[in-house]
Amino acid sequence: MSINTQSIKPGDRGKGGNNPRAPRASAFKIGLILACGFANLSSLPEPRAVETPVTEGTRSRAALTDSVNLQLPFAVDSLCRVSDPARSLDGFLDGLDRLLDGRDTIVRIVHLGDSHVQAGFYSGQVMRLLHQAFGNAGRGWIAPLKLAGVNEPKDYRISSTVGKWTSGRCVQRAPGCPWGLGGMGLRPESETVDLAIGISPLLGAGYAFNEVHFYRDARTPRLLPGAEDERWTEAVCGSDPRAPEVVVDTFRLATTVDSLHLYSVRPDEYLPGEAAGSYYGFSLLNGQPGILYHSIGQNGAMFVNYANAGYLRQLSLLEPSLLIITLGTNESYTPRPFREEEFVAQIDGFIRLVREYLPSTALLLTTPAESFRRTRNGFVRNENIAKAAHAITTYAEAGGLACFDLYCATGGANSCRKWRDGKLLGRDRVHFSTAGYYEQGKLLYKALVRLKTDRQPPATADEQ
């Protein structure tokens, strides 16, 4: 339920200071362009409309299968399953049933994690496979990670001609600005600001949109499409009592497009440095039923970094049916002896807050795959990964939570050498190659589909 909503139609725009062609030096301006492959804004072509590709959400579906083109010979097929003896994911699976039945509904998933998730290869693979199976409701969450000085997924790009930004991230002891839903925030430090957000024509294919949700701190200037942009039909600004400090601007468009320009409504309303809030990110939707998969990761993140009541109140605005949690790698790289009881306490502190602020969301814990750690004598197997995985699976079983044990599904102890020999590890031997992450994504998808097919609804009297 939202409050304090305000709706603006295209005809309401166009007074002084709103002309997107006005000189840049005269106003505080933010332009967001969802396009790709450009060096500067002056050379951008006009936005083009694109057709929504035919997806599984818009046509008859083949029988659901867990078959994937797995290229991981050391994977243990029998262990590629989600453990859920308490049937905590039944509500989420009911949502998948509704999609398979052709219902006009959206099932929302948030995949929260560390650098394994931030790169977008692991979670992106799961997202695309789920879209193929259950329908594509949109790209979901995107955020200006590169402008914050870190890497971002390759199926979109956010850049700017402005060189100075202040960023804040959940992993920082003293963030430069408030951080929000995506675990980060971005605040402009220039009188004239422009942002360019692009979706890759190849890796982002199929993610054209006709609705945009823009999440920002309430202290930031409001943005609207340009007065001459005839594609948008309405912009609604609102907040929610769960997180009143966050404003959500919803832009609806008359057609499915791959670009959108946004500009400050009143460029003279804020002076440089006066707006203390941050811009958090966007959710892109296409108006189709299916899965809306929000991938949110931060390099270096641990359970304690997300164990924040204010953050989880904001995360609840995405209303996920399922929260997938991929953490534990960074905790295993402690310079002191790994203490499993301390790690379990950190997991528990986070889970308790999640249950408080997202009480209707099903939870799926995952374990990290085995990797190496660097020592003075070179790389050695990180034995703490096994301890972290054991702690996660034990905690999940005791707490009635679902769990996907990627550690065991990929061979467990000493499997790091198999990842290395298969050229599926990165140079640091902590992260995985793109191909390695894709294989992990296939395994998580396979496990979810197996859970779904194994837990079919009971037969009706006519079927018996």
Explain how this protein is built.
The chain is of the alpha/beta class and 464 residues long. It has ten helices and 21 strands. The protein has helices at 90-100, 115-118, 121-134, 303-306, 309-315, 340-357, 384-399, 406-409, 415-421, 434-454, and strands at 3-8, 32-34, 82-83, 106-113, 140-142, 156-159, 165-169, 184-188, 195-199, 209-217, 223-225, 232-239, 246-257, 262-264, 279-285, 290-297, 322-326, 362-366, 372-375, 378-381, 402-404. The strands form six sheets. It has a six-stranded antiparallel β-sheet, with no helix packed on it. Helix 6 (340-357) links the parallel strand 17 (322-326) and strand 18 (362-366). The longest helix is centred in the C-terminal third of the chain and has 21 residues, at 434-454.
Head-to-tail CA distance between termini: 42 Å
Number of strands: 21
Structural class: alpha/beta
What radius of gyration results from the CA coordinates?
Answer: 22 Å
Helical content (DSSP H or I, runs of 4+): 10-25%
Mean model confidence by pLDDT = 85
What share of the residues does DSSP label as strand, in percent?
15-25%
Largest sheet: 6 strands, antiparallel
Helical region count?
Answer: 10
Strand order of the largest sheet: 1-12-13-10-15-5
Overall spatial form: globular
**Unreliable stretches covering 5 or more consecutive residues:** 14-59, 270-274
